[in-house]
Amino acid sequence: MTSQDGRDSIVTAAAHAGSGALLPQRQKVVLVIDLVESVRLMSANELGVIEQWRGFLQFATGNVLPHHGGRLVKSLGDGLMAEFDSAREGVAAALELQAYFEAGNASRPADERMYLRAGLNLTHVYVDEIDIYGSGVNLAARVATLAGPGETMVTAAVRDGLTEGLDAHVEDMGECYVKHVAEPIRVFRAGSAGPTPVLLPEREYLRGVQPTIAVIPFSGRSMGAEHLAIGELIADGVIAHMGKTTELKVISRLATTVLRHRDIGVREAGAQLKADYVLSGSYVVIGSRLLLTAELVGTGSEDILWVDRLNGDVADLLRPNSELCYEIALQAHQAVLGSAVQKAMHRPLPTLAGQALMFAGIAGVHHVAPEGFDFSGKALSAVIERHPRHAEAYAWLAKWHAIGTNRGLGGPSSRKIAADLADRAVQALPDSPFTLTISGLVKAYYDQDLEGAARCYGQALAANPNELLAWLYTATLCAWQGRGPQAGEAARRALELAPIGPMQYYVQSLAGLALLCAGDLKKAIEILRHSLRLNGAHTSTHRALTMALTLDGQVEEARQVVQALLRLEPRFSVEIFLQRYGGRAHPHAKVLADALKEAGVPAN
């Protein structure tokens, strides 16, 4: 039910308590049901939806509730609350109510279909003649938010009162966090899954929600025997590059090769491979030159997201770091990224699939303008609401808060929020290198707990020696501590692991600062300049490049960089730098601060 309704209930209970009246307490199964996307449905067809809802209420109060011994507690314009004496009766009523709109939905367009979501909890409630009260009532409403359209979710207390197969098919959805409840609660789905589930069953949950791309071996226009392997080489090279990014799942070429010469559509290929995107193409060989056309298509809409003609040497395909394969992988990756962000920015959050939300959220953290950064926080929060056990979503949102604070966007509560998100990520996946790394970032950035951060990064690298962010933040940590050689080595490892993807500019920015602290000014300036070409709005890169150029004697160029920096962040000063810089306690921080001052950054 609505938050206002909850406040009204509390006020009413307080009034009774203040008058000296003692409300009777009873154990009840509380059912909360609401209409999914009621605001959108009402705005499109207000009278029609009202008429349908009134018919549903008549069905509920005239048939279902009396038959199952239920009592209607309250009805709002898009939801209802009822109480029952047993779990069996409450769940039976919920499933019967869920079926009400099924017949009508069969003849409605997809965007006009009406679905209910339901939550049930067994709890002690305080009862009067008009309402019921208690924290267990609120928990039933929270459990309902975990249900997808057409689904019914129940707490463990309700599950214990059901007989599997007789009362309902019951599936364990695992432990979930819900708003305003400190500890996770165990949730079960009663009945079948809806068309777009919010939660995955416990056994499937670790599969994550990253988008999946299939690279089909390219087809040759000339079928000479000597040219047949070229399409496989292209696919291998592209997969090798795309496989280095954490934002995508890339299907093995062993699985995609079978579709190379089959005349099937993109949608069918996506269904066969369980892929969200398909990258394919054709090529022709002229002497030692290779001409090819590459095409990326979304399997759901069959829209072409990117198409291009490229050329290069056949011999390039035999190199470990083929420039041609890298270019295809880079362009395709950016097209997937751009598509996810555009789709997310122009469609209501509730209509987006979890994969699109997650990918758009990650993209916004690293790659877009301020409005996109703000949207990424909303998208990641929406992923957590839909998938309360998704550890990586908690970790990404913790990182989002840290980056926002670094940009001067965080409020006084950012530290507590980020720490809570990082803790929840580690609780959900305690052995995940990524969640351990983000936990270390929060410890280092907010609390200056550099030893605790080092332990987290060490655990992450012990679990996965190729964890990019663990190497990157180790480089930053060593730089803060004045350990130049170790900072430079960790920075170089991070750069090797980030040849592609939306995090490339971010990796280069932090690695550049680490190399600067290691004394490798030439390399630092080179990669910091490249980072700004990828994202000219990243103020941290401007700061690092300013310091590197000044210390290298290129003060005039450093002053030009400062002008760009101050246009992006007019209130930036040397004092603010020292407040934000994690290594401010080390003597080298004064050297960096003096370099900023020499280049024209105001002292305060």
Automatic annotation (TrEMBL):
InterPro entries attached to this UniProt entry:
A/G_cyclase, Adenylyl/Guanylyl_Cyclase_3/4, Nucleotide_cyclase, TPR-like_helical_dom_sf
Provide the coiled-coil residue spans: none
What is the protein's species of origin? Ramlibacter alkalitolerans
Q: Show where the Guanylate cyclase domain sits.
A: 29-144
The record's section on Gene3D superfamilies has: Nucleotide cyclase (3.30.70.1230), Tetratricopeptide repeat domain (1.25.40.10)
Identify this protein by name: Guanylate cyclase domain-containing protein
